Amino acid sequence: MNQDRKTIIAGNWKMHLNVHQSSLLLHRLHENIRVHRDIEVVLAPSMLSLQPLSLELDHRKFKLASQDAYFKDEGGYTGEVSFAMLGEMVQYGIIGHSARRIYFGETLEMVRDKVQAAVRCGIAPIICVGETKQERDAGETKQVLHDQITTALQNLTSRDIEGIVVAYEPVWAISTFDGVIARPDDVEKSIAFIRMQIRELYGQKASERVRVLYGGSVNEHDVRGYLEIPGVDGALVGAASLNYHQFAAIVDAAYQLRLKA
Ligand code: 13P
User: Fold this and answer.
1) In the prediction, which pLDDT does 175 show?
2) 246 to 42, 80, 110, 153, 218: CA distances (angstroms)
3) Catalytic positions
4) Measuring CA to CA, which residue among 39, 13, 52, 6 is closest to residue 244?
5) Whose C-alpha lies nearest to ligand 1, atom 7?
6) Atom of ligand 1 nearest to the CA of 167
């Protein structure tokens, strides 16, 4: 972990919890998580819960992220919500999650346009990248990461880049309840490769400033191992973020690691 910048622990609640349940979980998290100066705790509830949570939460303790949004600011795009509409409510926006790419056909170019829309609206993108099992087995991991990173970061300034967060989420390691998890040395290699791509595009300084998270079956037992990998600045947590004991323990592990460093 880099001591110069804050560690991010983000919880992606995916399509779980209605407004009432989200509010209850926020309340439990509030009781169980303290304010840590060096740690940003980011919650990504469903679109429906963003607004009520933004009014309820303690802004010293939590930040909000959308799980997705559309790249146009307004218009006849029935069913969509734009980053422009979220601007007042969220500090971060998850973009290009593998669920969006796989289930909703989100292309490299759509991810790029969403990154630009978020930046334009003052929302820091959390860009998800990562290879599927099939791509990994075919030895295509680097090519996939290269294509995802270079397209997503097109047409940004070096200054824009510094506020961006990339989450490396190997698709084969997401929500695996059967024990398949990413090995730290694999994660380290992919994250070094991601930073190298950013360095080639935007230079050394930008590649050092971008925060890179790991995501994929992170829980309170293995989070420490991932946070200790060189180049990792935090975690994007799915299932374990829906359980306040587990998520609070993950935040605490990140805090203990900062204290020790
Ligand atoms: P899990 O932690 O449930 O594997 O989900 C990871 C993820 O997709 C976070 O965005």
Assistant:
1) 87
2) 15, 32, 34, 33, 10
3) 97, 169
4) 13
5) 238
6) 10
For the Cβ of 216 lying below 6 angstroms from any atom of ligand 1, the answer is: yes
217 lines ligand 1 (CB under 6 A): yes
Q: What is the pLDDT of residue 260?
A: 85
CA 217 to ligand 1 centroid distance, Å: 6
DSSP 120-175: HTT-EEEEEE---HHHHHTT-HHHHHHHHHHHHTTT--HHHHHT-EEEE--GGGTT
Q: What does the CA dihedral 22, 43, 61, 223 come to, rounded to 10 degrees?
A: 120
Which CA distances in Å does 226 have to 69, 131, 201, 230, 239? 28, 18, 26, 9, 16
Q: In sequence order, what are the residues at sequence separation of 6 or more whose Cβ sits closer than 8 angstroms to the Cβ of residue 82? A: 69, 70, 71, 72, 73, 74, 117, 121
The residue whose CB lies within 8 Å of the most ligand 1 atoms, and thus the one to mutate among 14, 98, 177, 241, is: 14
Q: Is 174 in the pocket of ligand 1 (CB under 6 A)?
A: yes
Mean pLDDT of successive 10-residue stretches along the chain, which has 261 residues: 84 98 98 95 98 97 98 98 95 98 97 98 98 96 98 93 96 84 94 97 93 97 96 97 98 94 77
DSSP line for 7-50: EEEEEE-TT---HHHHHHHHHHHHHH----TTEEEEEE--HHHH
Give the pTM. 0.97
Residue 158 is predicted with a pLDDT of 85
Distance 255 CA to ligand 1 centre (A): 21
Going by their DSSP bridges, the two strands 165-168 and 124-129 should be labelled as parallel
